[in-house]
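Task card 7
Instruction: Convert sequence to structure tokens.
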Amino acid sequence: MANTASTDLPAGVTLKASALGGYAVHLGGEFVGWIHENGPERWNAYRRAEPPRTGEFLGAFRRADAVERIARAATNTAGHGKAGHAQG
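Output:
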């Protein structure tokens, strides 16, 4: 599946199209969350969570804002153990 890097994404973030629809969000090469479209210009954002929990819903935003929220959430939890919910 194709990787997407764009100037509207935070530094170090890439998106990878998911077989389940939407995109997996990678920060520095590490999977940190995912987004999927929820209507015109609205994307649901999820942060990767520790098993057995599912991902943490962060809200619905424009695509760039959804990705930024995930990257920020991942950065804020860095050093507190890796999240481990595989999605995407």
